[in-house]
UniProtKB/TrEMBL annotation:
<feature type="transmembrane region" description="Helical">
    <location>
        <begin position="89"/>
        <end position="111"/>
    </location>
</feature>
<dbReference type="Pfam" id="PF01757">
    <property type="entry name" value="Acyl_transf_3"/>
</dbReference>
<keyword id="KW-1133">Transmembrane helix</keyword>
<feature type="transmembrane region" description="Helical">
    <location>
        <begin position="132"/>
        <end position="151"/>
    </location>
</feature>
<keyword id="KW-0472">Membrane</keyword>
<feature type="transmembrane region" description="Helical">
    <location>
        <begin position="20"/>
        <end position="39"/>
    </location>
</feature>
<dbReference type="GO" id="GO:0016747">
    <property type="term" value="F:acyltransferase activity, transferring groups other than amino-acyl groups"/>
</dbReference>
<dbReference type="InterPro" id="IPR052728">
    <property type="entry name" value="O2_lipid_transport_reg"/>
</dbReference>
<protein>
    <submittedName>
        <fullName>AAEL015092-PA</fullName>
    </submittedName>
</protein>
<feature type="domain" description="Acyltransferase 3">
    <location>
        <begin position="7"/>
        <end position="180"/>
    </location>
</feature>
<keyword id="KW-0812">Transmembrane</keyword>
<feature type="transmembrane region" description="Helical">
    <location>
        <begin position="60"/>
        <end position="77"/>
    </location>
</feature>
<feature type="transmembrane region" description="Helical">
    <location>
        <begin position="163"/>
        <end position="184"/>
    </location>
</feature>
<dbReference type="InterPro" id="IPR002656">
    <property type="entry name" value="Acyl_transf_3_dom"/>
</dbReference>
Length: 222
């Protein structure tokens, strides 16, 4: 009888070793930097760059690698994959291919004004979600941990379960992200970018108070 697995694999030993540590995902954080470097390098000839056969081939290969890596990934939990020598190679590719695909996609969106995905992302209905992205990024992990903690029984390893909980996590993450945006991010942005620079004002007041304090100390001591 096939044993069910817990959602998010939070109790899985190998998931904890391969996915949760920062160093195992560090490469993915740099793909955005690489995309920015490529963007500024080819910006004068961006239209020509994205129409090159090489770039089109890279896009197709990146998409195919992601599909090949992630579609059958659930099978890993149906076999004793620790015994297979190719699993480290699979893990390395799977950890990097998604970030690489995102970097290639961002470059394509930056230069291809006719891209349908770009038109969708620029629509007025999507732009508010984009503004919440940073707050959602910081709050989604709390939502994932809360959902995992709320699970008291094993869940079946099927297709519907992760999809349904992913939708739930997205809705809750954006809800919490909206709260963080309204209470923290937006007020902080207004404070830092307003006509009155409150940070400099507060720093100046503190410096003046410190000078007055030192003057009083000097008068008393000397």
């Amino acid at each position: 009888m096939k044993m069910p697995v817990l959602l998010l694999f939070t109790d899985d030993e190998w998931f904890a070793q391969l996915y949760k540590p920062f160093h195992t995902s560090s490469a993915g954080y740099f793909y955005g930097v690489l995309a920015g470097m490529v963007y500024h390098r080819v910006k004068p000839s961006g239209d020509e760059f994205i129409n090159r056969k090489m770039f089109k081939a890279v896009k197709i290969i990146a998409l195919l690698v992601v599909i090949i890596c992630y579609v059958p990934s659930y099978l890993i939990y149906d076999i004793d994959w620790k015994e297979y020598f190719w699993m480290p190679f699979y893990g390395s590719i799977a950890k990097n291919c998604w970030g690489f695909l995102c970097a290639v996609t961002f470059i394509d969106l930056a230069f291809n004004k006719k891209n349908r995905l770009r038109s969708l992302l620029e629509s007025r209905s999507i732009l508010p979600l984009g503004k919440l992205t940073y707050s959602v990024y910081h709050s989604h992990y709390l939502i994932l941990m809360a959902i995992s903690s709320a699970i008291r029984a094993p869940l079946a390893n099927d297709v519907f379960t992760p999809i349904s909980f992913t939708v739930l996590a997205l809705i809750l993450s954006y809800g919490l992200g909206l709260i963080v945006f309204l209470l923290v991010e937006q007020p902080a942005a207004n404070l830092l970018t307003g006509k009155t620079n409150y940070i400099e004002f507060i720093a100046e007041q503190l410096m003046q108070a410190a000078r007055r304090c030192f003057k009083k100390i000097n008068k008393k001591c000397f």
